Structures are given as structure tokens and as C-alpha cells.
């Protein structure tokens, strides 16, 4: 059936519509009426994002600041990563390895929102209602009457349930198990995931419902399914952690309503996930006594500095090529630092196995840890330790110079608060920091190159 066209005349000054052209608009403007054609489209068209008309709007007249207030999830670290809380109508995709704690965090957030916001619908395509109830009893305690559970994989049934229930918050666990009956392909296929994602986007945007979507990951840790889903959603979160550690880190790889530099820290306990407020203290629990190959360094994540320990171990290589093993440090970056140590400091590394580890499961991607890695390797190969509790930050260049890092002054303040006696950092950063800012608790040492930093570490 051919689509019907409707012709209207719209004033370019005030937006007034008229069925026929007039010389003067009701706003008083002359010859401001322009012709527009509107094509009627069926409301049942699931490919459309909204069911409202497609009339252009003036950007300055769209919405108001008060309409985009954040919704508190009841979990401070989750709010931090989201940019201050949930936004109405937003779609958030969360991924992580099996058993890492995705469903635990979401059921805790759902229980909190059911208490404060109203009706919450948790849709599960992987677990039964009884299984989710057991988890909720264990991690949430007393449950609100506003929290509903639906074990369903058919999107048409889910949409119908949302129309009847009108939830304020929706959870889909997981998108790979959902399917729409308009397609014949199996759940989890590219076409099914793409179409289900479109339906969830329409459901969230038209009803102003914040939607949490759980997604599977591949064996390489990447999101499974078509890339189009990541483009559709407003926020992509990744939940990581080590099996042998209780620490869990939440990162945002995409966020249309906030920064992607924030991280959230949790500790997995028997009663669920517990927020970690003092992340640096968690990483530095056992660093009272200095040891060979151990150096404290720091990065600035989002709005807070994080201090942690870098350990290095060097040993003579017995046969073949020397081994280079790193955990938490980029392997190519480690090879570059070792080459600079050999060329600029005069340390022979060709016959040394080198093992570097970031304690606690932290995986920093900042170059500010370069100096900490270099000093840890030097400490191990020379069997020396610093006489004072020291923190080292700075990017190491190929010529051996130390390049400045961002937010160094905030890292210095955190080091003083944690009781460290001195901090070694690039000279450009040190020149901009007032020594009185730490109250004399922490000595600031500016180093021009790697050689100067090593001398400061040795106490010379």
C-alpha cells in the first residue's frame, strides 16, 4: 500500500502550521510560510525509533535541563562510572566474563531502584525465577514489592509485559538469549541481536525507561554479537576481575552522558558486591616494609588518584632467549622500558629473565607507571631498596627523559595523605607543585631523566 503524503505550511519564525499558504502568519511575520510534506507511516513499524511524528524541531526548544536529572542507583561506584547516575530513556550495555558478578551487581541495583524509584522489571532468559530469587535473598536481604521478575525470551511478550506493568527500570539478562518472532533465525544470531536491540531502544526511548542489557563476551574478552548493538546503546560498561582475587573493576568504554575515564571498584563477598571507597588502601595493604623489586606508583583514574604496587623479578637466563613476562603492564611497553634501561643506564638485560606484575589485579593503561616499572626492574637486578617510603610516577621517553603526566599534584596530595615520605616525578611536574601543599609530609623530587630518578631512589 502506498504511503499517503500530507502537505502543510509551517512558519519559519514561530513554527505555526497551516493547511494552506497565507501571506502573514499569526505571529506577524510576512512570507515566512514554507511547504512541508509529511509521510504517514504505520505506528506498528518496529523499525522506527519512536511512534511520534517525524517533524523537525528547533534544537534550542528541545527539552529542558530539569528533564535529564540523574537517577541514583543506590550504588555509589556504579553512579560514578555512569557519570552521576542513570539517565531516563538510556540504554546501558554491561559485559564481563561468566561468574564475574554482572548479575549480582544488577540485582542489587534493581532492588535499590525498586525501593526508591518504583516498579522494576527483571527479565531473565538464562535463569529461572527461583534461581534469581535465591540470589536476591542472598545479596539484597528484604525485597521490595515493586521488584518483578519475568523468565522470558520472546521480545513480543516482554514488550507486552512492559506495556502492562509500565516499569521505571528494565533489566534484560541477556540479549543473546532474546529473540523476536518476526525472524526465523535462532536467538543469539546477528539478525536477532540486531533486531532485539532496535526494539529495546524503541522501548526505552519512547517510555523514558532506563534499560540495563547484559551481554556475553568472547574468549578474547570482547563483546559477542554484532558491533551495531554497541553503537545503538548510550553506555557500554565492562566488568573485569581475576578469579583468584576479590577485586572487581567496572569501566565505561562508551558513555554519551559522562566520561569514560572513571572506574568503579568492588569487592566480591558472600553477601554480594561491596563498594571500595579507598581503592589505594586496598592495593597497598602489605607494603609497610620495602622489598627488592617493589615500587609504589600511581595513576589518575577519572576523578581520583589510585596508588598501587609494581613488582619486578629478574633472574639469569639459563638457555635460549631471555623471557619477558608481564601481568597488568603492556608487554610492548615493558620491552621499550627495558631497552631504555640497557641503553641509557648501562644495565645488561640480554641475559636476564624479567617478570613484572601489578599487584591486586589492576590493569592500568596510563604511561605514568613507566618510571615505577623501570625502578622496580632496577631494584631487582641491583638488589637494592629505597631507604624511604617512595612513590614514583612519570612517562619514560626513548631518550631516557621523563615526560610530565597529568594530575600529578593530586597524586602528590594522595601520597602525602597515605603517609609516604617522598615522591619522584618529572621535573616539569615538580616545578608546578608548591612543596607547602603537602604540609611538609612528603618530599617532592623532580627528575629530568631516568638516571636522575635512579639516584633519587637510591638516596644519593
Mean pLDDT: 86
Give the biggest beta sheet: 9 strands, mixed
What's the architecture of the largest domain, going by CATH?
Answer: 3-Layer(aba) Sandwich
Briefly note the CATH topology name of the largest domain. Rossmann fold
| Residues in helices, as a percent range | 25-40%
Write down the Rg. 28 Å
Q: Strand order, biggest sheet? A: 6-5-7-8-4-9-10-11-12
Determine the number of helices (DSSP H or I, runs of at least 4 residues). 12
Strand content: 25-35%
Unreliable stretches (pLDDT < 50, length at least 5) are none
Give an overview in words:
- The chain is an alpha/beta fold.
- It has three domains: 45 residues; 208 residues, P-loop containing nucleotide triphosphate hydrolases (Rossmann fold, 3-Layer(aba) Sandwich), CATH 3.40.50.300; 177 residues, Ribosomal Protein S5, domain 2, CATH 3.30.230.
- 27% of the residues lie in helices and 26% in strands.
- The strands form five sheets. Strands 6-5-7-8-4-9-10-11-12 form a nine-stranded mixed beta sheet, sandwiched between helices.
- Helix 8 crosses helix 9.
- The chain is globular.
- 38% of the residues are buried.
